[in-house]
Design brief:
417 residues, alpha/beta, Rossmann fold, Nucleotidyltransferase, domain 5, 8-stranded mixed beta sheet, 7-stranded mixed beta sheet, globular
Length: 417
C-alpha cells in the first residue's frame, strides 16, 4: 500500500507501532499529537479496506473548527480530496470502501447503532468516563487479521485529578504516548523560545505545556462560566476586545452585556496575520467599538484610519479580571480557543508557594481581549453589579469617557458588594 502522508514526526511512527486498544496521547503544547493522529487516520482512510473511522469532540462547534477542518485540510493538501466524496450535510467523507464520520458527544444516544474501527477523541479531557466507555463499546466493526480496532485520546494534561489520570491509565490494554514540543521539528523558532520562557512564569504551566506532564487546576481565575449555542439576538451593549499578535494569535472577542451577565463570542483567533489582513477580517464583522491592546498604538492608528472605531484598552489587569470574574460569563460553543483558555487561566504561584493576584502570562489571548472589551463597555455604557444590595443599579457612566481613577473607584465598589 502506498502512503500519502507527508512530513510526519516521530510521534506518527509511535502511533503506527502502538498495538493497545486504547492509546492515550498526553503531551505539551504543539507537540504534534493532534496533527499526527489526523495524519494516521488519513492514512487508513486512503489505504485501509472497509474501515469506519470516527472523530469526535464534546461539542460540534468545537469539532468543526478543529479536528474536522484539520483532516479535510490534510486531504486537500495531499491531493486526495474530491468534492463528490464529501457529504457536508452529515459531516462524512468516503474514500473507496472507507468512511470517516465527524460527530459530537453532546447526544450519545445517536451512537447506539454505530460501529467503528478507529475513533479519535480530540481534547479528551472535555469528555467524561461514561463518554469514553460508550465510544469504547462502539469499536465493534470487523477487522483483517493482524489489525485491531483502537481509540485514540489526545489532550494537554492540565488536571491530574481528572478521569483519565485517575482511572483510565490504570486499566488494561491501555498505552500512553507522551510528547513535547521537542517531538515537533517543524515549529517556529520564535514560538519555541516563547514556550521555553514559561519556566520563568509558572511551574505548573511549564509542567503541562512544556514538559507535557500532569498539572493541577488550582487557583483558577474564571470558574463561573457556561457554554451556550449562540449569542442572544438582543443585548444592552456590545463591543469588541482585541489582543494583537503575530507569532502568538490575534484574538478578537465580541462582548455583550445583558442584565448582570457577560456574553462572549470568539470572532478571530489566528496567528501570522498582518494588520492589513486583520482590517479585512474586521470589515466582515458587525460594526461596533473596538478596545485593543494599547501597547500597539501604531496598529490601532492604522485600523482607525481604515474606518473602524477603536480605542486603547485599559491595561490594569487586576481591575479587568475583577470586573469579569464578578459576573456570570456565557461563552459560545464555537469559541474553541476561548473555552480552552478560560478552563486553564490561573493565578501565578511564586517560588514560596504563595498565590499572587496576577495571572500567568501564557495562553491568555482570548482572556486579554475579553478583558479589554468588558472594561471598554464599563467606561461607555455602565455596568450592573450582581450583589443583592445593588442588583438593580446601573452605574451612570453611559456615553461618556471616564478616567482610570473613576474605574478604580467602581472596582472598589464592586469588590465591597
Amino acid at each position: 500500500m502506498d502512503t500519502v502522508v507527508k512530513e510526519v514526526t516521530a510521534l506518527y511512527d509511535k502511533l503506527a507501532e502502538c498495538k493497545a486498544k486504547t492509546v492515550i496521547n498526553k503531551g505539551g503544547a504543539r507537540s504534534s499529537k493532534s496533527y499526527s493522529i489526523a495524519q494516521y487516520l488519513v492514512y487508513w482512510l486512503v489505504n485501509g479496506q472497509n474501515k469506519k473511522i470516527g472523530v469526535t469532540r464534546k461539542t460540534f462547534p468545537a469539532l468543526r473548527r478543529t479536528a474536522y477542518d484539520l483532516i479535510i485540510g490534510l486531504l486537500k493538501d495531499y491531493g486526495i480530496y474530491k468534492e463528490r466524496n464529501h457529504n457536508k450535510s452529515f459531516y462524512t467523507y468516503t474514500h473507496g470502501t472507507n468512511k470517516i464520520e465527524f460527530f459530537s458527544m453532546d447526544d450519545p444516544e445517536k451512537l447506539k447503532s454505530t460501529g467503528f474501527n478507529l475513533i479519535w477523541m480530540e481534547e479528551a479531557n472535555e469528555f467524561t468516563y461514561d463518554d469514553y466507555f460508550i465510544l469504547w463499546l462502539r469499536l465493534s466493526e470487523p477487522t483483517k487479521e493482524g489489525e485491531r480496532n483502537q481509540i485514540f485520546l489526545s489532550f494537554n494534561p492540565i488536571d491530574e485529578n481528572n478521569w483519565i489520570a485517575k482511572t483510565l491509565v490504570l486499566e488494561e490494554d491501555v498505552e500512553i504516548i507522551h510528547s513535547t514540543y521537542k517531538d515537533n521539528p517543524f515549529l517556529d523558532k520564535d514560538y519555541v523560545k516563547a514556550l521555553e520562557s514559561i519556566i520563568d512564569k509558572d511551574s505548573n504551566y511549564y509542567r503541562v505545556y512544556v514538559l507535557g506532564e500532569w498539572g493541577s487546576l488550582d487557583n483558577l481565575i474564571y470558574s463561573n462560566f457556561e457554554l451556550i449555542d449562540s449569542l442572544p439576538e438582543e443585548y444592552q451593549a456590545m463591543a469588541y476586545g482585541l489582543d494583537f499578535g503575530f507569532v502568538n494569535p490575534v484574538a478578537l472577542v465580541k462582548v455583550c452585556l445583558i442584565d448582570n451577565n457577560i456574553y462572549l463570542d470568539e470572532r478571530i483567533y489566528k496567528n501570522h496575520i498582518t494588520n492589513s489582513e486583520l482590517i479585512e477580517m474586521l470589515s466582515h464583522e458587525e460594526r461596533g467599538d473596538i478596545y485593543a491592546d494599547r501597547d500597539e498604538l501604531q496598529r490601532i492608528e492604522e485600523i482607525s484610519r481604515a474606518g473602524h472605531v477603536i480605542y486603547s484598552g485599559e491595561k490594569d489587569v487586576k481591575m479587568g479580571i475583577d470586573l469579569c470574574a464578578r459576573h456570570k460569563l456565557f461563552i459560545t460553543k464555537r469559541s474553541v480557543n476561548g473555552i480552552k483558555e478560560l478552563r486553564g487561566y490561573q493565578r501565578k504561584v511564586n517560588r514560596n508557594g504563595e498565590v499572587l493576584e496576577e495571572p500567568i502570562k501564557y495562553n491568555d489571548h482570548f482572556c486579554d481581549a475579553m478583558r479589554f472589551g468588558v472594561y471598554g463597555l464599563v467606561s461607555r455604557f455602565g455596568f450592573a453589579t450582581s450583589a443583592p444590595a445593588a442588583g438593580s443599579v446601573i452605574h451612570s457612566l453611559k456615553k461618556e469617557k471616564v478616567s482610570s481613577s473613576v474605574l478604580h473607584e467602581l472596582g472598589a465598589y464592586l469588590c465591597q458588594q
